[in-house]
Design a protein that fits this description.
By secondary structure, the chain is α+β, with helices and mostly antiparallel strands. The chain has three domains: 151 residues, 2-Layer Sandwich (Beta-Lactamase), CATH 3.30.450.280; 97 residues, Beta-Lactamase; 136 residues, Histidine kinase-like ATPase, C-terminal domain (Heat Shock Protein 90), CATH 3.30.565. The protein is built from twelve helices and 18 strands. The strands form four sheets. Strands 1, 2, 3, 4, 5 and 6 form a six-stranded antiparallel beta sheet that branches. The protein has a five-stranded antiparallel beta sheet with strand order 8-7-11-10-9, sandwiched between helices. The two termini are 30 Å apart.
């Protein structure tokens, strides 16, 4: 969830790390809302509105108390005195009267978020009291856990900057399974989903009253593969994530130490069965490796074809046949270069600047080894999909070769390659310009060779673009290719 901070930028007097701490709070308070069975709102003083709502989260363990979004709005008059009191007292304040919202009886608490002795914001909890049944042990335990976390917020002990923010998927949530430990790592309570998760790992006994570290150690078959953070997570000593695997089941664990002013008095451990998630991730890794291997083999096969064409050209007597085979060899080598780039990455896109940087100079040199041809490149192509990279590389190769052979006509000269990536009316567009300072366009129409026929076909059919030939200012020829990248 994002935090609505724009209205407070000019009013907030935050110290180093204060704004980041509030962002960390909002990034993790879904857990508290689920444990408290309550909506949470974050309030900050505003000169005109009294207090303004910066964020709001609804619980996934029960129904919400607020169906409409009030983020960015001012505080209600009946709630302001309670938030004021919590802001100045720096302690949790509970409303003495039941608050009614749309015929729903609510218990409201105001919790100041205090860091380095300064109140940064106030969190209000809104819990429905309309249910007439007695709360279960699970509900009582969850609510106590929520209170402990919010109490830590008044001491600046939660959220913790040491909590990992890694990109690996499968972070446990309250509904996936919760285990509460005491200071010695003994299980005080385990939710039904938490018990089921460890049963799938192979533990058939009740978790309560046992050391979670000993239970976990007994389930490990190959201790050489154990995550080194696991002991600190299952004892609740550090706010980290870890993972355990046994009998083909993968269990993701997250620890949240519970502390007061003096010591750590317990911990929460969230657990989630991520076996299916890890299996799918492994399938994706396998497919990525297979795709890379396919591109690598295609590149090798194309290089073999190019080598065979080179050998065949050496046996040709006719100069025209030799030249035809050499041109075919260059085209095959260009395609192989794209597949070589694809085989080195996980994505089906190509850093075209890196690819064309190697090919551009090589195309000019191979077209006429005896000429002194300078090449100059400017602009940025960026990342291009592989289905565009291959035909575009072939087109540039043909046009550079044509510029050297027919534009410069055996003389020394320069060939330019310019890329211009910009926003157009229909989305992002790419304009590629190949220019030379040679003899320029012929005065009379001429028959296009195979190379230019290939260029026109690739530009119109494969790239879906347009191509134009123009006289270059200062002499020579300028070829412009325009193509749309929208939806690519």
């Amino acid at each position: 969830m994002a935090i609505f901070t724009d209205p407070i930028r000019e009013h907030a007097d935050f110290g180093p790390g204060d704004a980041e701490w509030l962002h960390l709070l909002v990034g993790d308070w879904q857990m508290v809302a689920d444990l408290a069975f309550a909506d949470l709102a974050l309030w900050f003083p505003h000169p005109e509105l009294g207090y303004i709502a910066l964020a709001h989260v609804r619980p996934s363990t029960t129904h919400t108390a607020f169906h409409s979004d009030f983020v960015g709005e001012g505080i209600r008059s009946d709630l302001k005195p309670l938030v004021d009191k919590a802001w100045h007292s720096k302690s949790i304040e509970r409303s003495s009267e039941t608050n009614w919202n749309s015929e729903m009886a609510l218990r409201v608490e105001a919790v100041p978020m205090v860091r380095n002795g300064r109140t940064l914001a106030v969190v209000t909890t809104h819990m429905d009291l309309s249910s007439s049944r007695m709360p279960s042990r699970l509900e009582l335990t969850y609510r106590q856990c929520a209170y402990d976390l919010l109490r830590m917020g008044t001491l600046g002990l939660w959220p913790d900057f040491a909590s990992p923010t890694g990109s690996r998927r499968g972070a446990p949530r309250v509904g996936d399974g919760l285990i509460r430990l005491d200071a010695d790592g003994i299980v005080q309570y385990a939710s039904p989903n938490g018990v089921s998760a460890f049963r799938r790992l192979g533990d058939g006994e009740s978790l309560e009253g046992r050391s979670l570290a000993e239970v976990t150690a007994g389930l490990l078959k190959d201790r050489r593969m154990v995550d080194e953070t696991l002991p600190l997570v299952v004892t609740g000593r550090m706010p980290w994530r870890s993972e355990i695997e046994s009998r083909g089941v993968s269990l993701s664990l997250r620890a949240i130490p519970l502390r007061d002013e003096q010591q750590r008095f317990g911990a929460l451990v969230l657990c989630r069965d991520v076996s299916e998630l890890r299996r799918r991730e492994m399938e994706l890794v396998t497919k990525d490796a297979t795709i890379r291997e396919i591109h690598h083999r295609v590149k090798n096969n194309l290089q073999t074809v190019a080598a065979l064409l080179r050998m065949q050209s050496r046996r040709m007597v006719s100069d025209e046949a030799k030249q035809g085979l050499e041109q075919a060899m260059r085209r095959v080598a260009t395609i192989a270069l794209v597949h070589e780039t694809l085989s080195q990455g996980l994505t089906q896109s190509v850093d075209f600047d890196e690819l064309i940087g190697r090919q551009f100079r090589l195309s000019a040199e191979v077209a006429s080894p005896s000429q002194q041809v300078r090449t100059e490149r400017s602009g940025t192509f960026g990342e291009l999909p592989s289905d565009l990279a291959t035909p575009l590389a072939l087109v540039i190769n043909e046009l550079v070769t044509n510029a050297v052979e027919h534009g410069l006509e055996g003389r020394a000269g320069t060939v330019w390659l310019l890329a211009d990536r910009s926003e157009g009316e229909d989305g992002e567009e790419l304009t590629v310009t190949i220019a030379d300072d040679g003899v320029g366009l012929p005065q009379t129409p001429h028959v296009e060779g195979l190379g230019l026929q290939i260029v026109r076909t690739l530009v119109t059919s494969e790239l879906g673009g347009t191509i134009t030939w123009e006289r270059r200012d200062g002499g020579g020829t300028e070829v412009k290719i325009r193509l749309s990248l929208a939806g690519k």
